[in-house]
Amino acid sequence: MSDAGNRPIRKRFAEGTTADDLKAYMAPFVATLGYKFNTEDDFVGEVLSSELEILEQTGDVFCPCRIRTGDPKEDAKIVCPCIPFYLKQFAAMRKCWCGLFIRIDVEDGAELIGVIEEPESGVPIDVPVCRVGDLADGQVRHVKIGKQDIALTRIGGEYFALSNICRHAFGPLADGVLDGYYLMCPWHGWRYDVRDGTTDHPDADVKTYHAHASDGEVLITLTV
Ligand code: SF4
Ligand code: FES
C-alpha cells in the first residue's frame, strides 16, 4: 500500500482539540439530520476520547468502531459524524453504528450504546498500523483497528499479529514478554505461540492475523 492511502483525508481540527470542541462542532450538524448525542454521558466521553486519539494519529476524526481501508474515498464515509452516508441504516437502528448518536426522539439511549457489527463483505484489506522502523525485533506493540484489539510483534524480521486479549482473564498480551515465538501474558503467565495463537490450555487459543511489511509500513490483513 502506498503512503497516499495513509494520508489524512482532510484536516479540520487544530492541535489541542478537546472532546468539548468535537461536541460543539458535531451537535448542531447532527441535529439538522434528526440526531443528538447519546444520553449516556460516560459512553459519549469514551467514544470521543477514542476519536481524539484517532485524530492525533491520522489528522481526522475517523469512526472508532469501524475499520479504515486506506482508500481516501471509502474512508471519507467513516469520518464522524458519518450519518449522511447511512441515513437508512441508522434510521432503522435509531442510532449510528457506534451508538454515539441517537435519534432525537429517543429519551434513554442506554440500550442503544455499543457497536453493531456491519455485515462483512468477506473482502480482505491490508491496514497499515505502523512504520517498519517503529517495531524492532523482539518487541511487541499494541494495535487497535476498529474493534480489533491486537498484539503485533516482530521476530527474525517476520511479523506476527494475534488477539491482544488473554483467554485466561483478559490480560493484555501486548504488555507480555516474548520468549522465542511464545508471548507470555503479563498477568499470570499463560503462553501463546504467536505463529498460530495456540496455547497449552484447552480451548483457549487466540485469533491470529496475517501481518507483513510493504513500502516501509507494517500491514495487518483484516476481513471487512
Ligand atoms: S458510526 Fe457514529 S461514531 Fe462512528 S463515525 Fe458514524 S456517527 Fe461517528
Ligand atoms: S490473564 Fe493472562 S494469564 Fe491470566
Give a topology summary.
Elements (H helix, E strand, L loop, with lengths): L18 H13 L3 E3 L3 H18 L13 H4 L11 H7 L7 E3 L20 E8 L8 E6 L2 E8 L2 E6 L13 E3 L2 E3 L6 E3 L14 E2 L1 E4 L2 E7 L1
Antiparallel strand pairs: 1-2, 3-12, 4-5, 5-6, 6-10, 7-8, 8-9, 11-12
The structure holds iron/sulfur cluster and FE2/S2 (inorganic) cluster.
Iron/sulfur cluster binds next to loops.
Shape field: elongated
CATH superfamily of the largest domain: Ferredoxin thioredoxin reductase catalytic beta subunit
- Report how far the terminal alpha carbons are from each other: 17 Å
CATH architecture of the largest domain: Alpha-Beta Complex
Q: Count of helical segments?
A: 4
Summarize the amount of helix as a percent range: 10-25%
Beta content? 25-35%
Give the biggest beta sheet.
Answer: 4 strands, antiparallel
Give the class-level CATH name of the largest domain: Alpha Beta
Give the mean pLDDT: 86
Explain this structure to me?
The protein has 4 helices and 12 strands. The chain is α+β, with helices and mostly antiparallel strands and 224 residues long. The strands form 4 sheets. A 4-stranded antiparallel β-sheet has the order 4-5-6-10, with no helix packed on it. A hairpin with a 2-residue loop joins strand 4 and strand 5. The chain is elongated. It starts with 18 loop residues before the first helix and ends with a strand. The N terminus is likely disordered. Bound molecules: iron/sulfur cluster and FE2/S2 (inorganic) cluster. The site of FE2/S2 (inorganic) cluster has 10 residues, from loops.
